[in-house]
Amino acid sequence: MVEFGLRGPAPRSGALLLLSGALTACLVLCLHLTRSSGGAQGERVGPRRLGPVDDLADARALLAAWPEDKPRACILILARNSDLDGVLRSVKQLERRFNAQPSAQYPYCYLNDEPFSNEFRAVAAAATVAPAFFGLVPAAHWSYPPHINTTLAAELRSASRRRMPYGGSESYRFMCRYFSGFFFDHPLLEGFEWYWRVEPDVHFMCDLPGITHDPFRHMQANNQSLAWTIVMEEVPSTIPSLWPTMQRWLAANPHHVVAGNMLPAVIEDSDAAQIGDEAAAAEEGGDAAGYDSRHALPLLRLQQQLYSSSRFKFTGCHFWSNFEVGRLAFFRSAGYRSFFQHLDSDTGFFYERWGDAPVHTLAAAALLTPEQVYFARDIGYKHGSWSYCPSQPADRPRCDCHPAWNAVPLAQPRCQLDFRTRLHALQRAEE
Ligand SMILES: Nc1nc2c(ncn2[C@@H]2O[C@H](COP(=O)(O)OP(=O)(O)O)[C@@H](O)[C@H]2O)c(=O)[nH]1
Ligand SMILES: [Mg+2]
Description:
alpha/beta, Spore Coat Polysaccharide Biosynthesis Protein SpsA, Chain A, 7-stranded mixed β-sheet, 3-stranded antiparallel β-sheet, 14 strands, about 40% helix, Nucleotide-diphossugar_trans, transferase, alpha-1,2-mannosyltransferase activity, Glyco_trans_15
């Protein structure tokens, strides 16, 4: 009898060999998954489920047993299945530099607008001693709001394809809108208070040993809400109407703007001489009915800064959000939600290409004080050709970078230096 062209006992033993090979491979994979699916603080739990479902129950169980004194933080990675290799390169560095040590071991929260593949889940989970959770972005958060004309949006994309980075990309705009308005409401992040945003193919160049270099602990102890390493200038053609749109929000929502905000750090006066003249005139003294213009001056200047549509402009300098450590309560606040809803009810996420980085920065400028943002000066970081390396001699032994690299993107010194100077000036003024 011919069995599909093979005969005698040989094919049977070949099939047996194949079967036993497959069983061995299964066993190795199961063992590997069991080993890599660490529970709370490295405690081993059963094999991780594989499938395109949110790991909500796992995340909740982890948080239910969370140590009291430890920030409820996760490492947040939005990625496509095709980003797996780049994700691994980033995660391996973060683990080695920081997260593998017992005082850290923060879980990873992976989000995607499409279901993660079993391969992505298994490989990403195996790259860390901490637990890894995988979530699907709700379709409503990765799409257009109803008032956007999608035909017009497509035409504007084609027109801007060559004029700006990602000008022709629809998915990049969804991503920017998602990071501007929705990530903090993903159910997987529900019980977390902090996140550290990590992207594929970034580099962490310094060891961050112990709790003193833990940005979550630092920010929690100092009541801070947003951390940054690099300040970058936005491509102006991506945000022509962002600042005027924000000005309308400021005018309508002065109650959300905090006293001692850092708006002066992000705007520039296109007519500094004129403001000088007004200040001099005001300082000349009082006038009728007890009105003293000197008392009015700070308020006047603030109002001019906030509400004038032509004279004060956004500098374009923003916290580069591919590195971001944040307090989720800041984004979940009434002020931030009001700000995002106002922006989203306009058209700039789709008819222009507003990035989440300038959006986060402008929100921080209005809703936080300079003390509430944290320059994470001890974290060496690189994304693309831009990098930041700590510059103190004491940092050198724990870093594999050189501060001279900071000067490489010479096109950007205005933002990197000017912004920090402005922030320091504001912080000193507050003291
Ligand atoms: N799931 C998903 N993630 C995306 C998509 N586009 C960008 N991202 C993620 O969003 C982040 C920013 O994208 P990236 O391509 O690195 O943009 P760049 O850093 O501005 O050049 C990264 O974490 C990407 O993995 C997308 O269409 N789907
Ligand atoms: Mg990137």
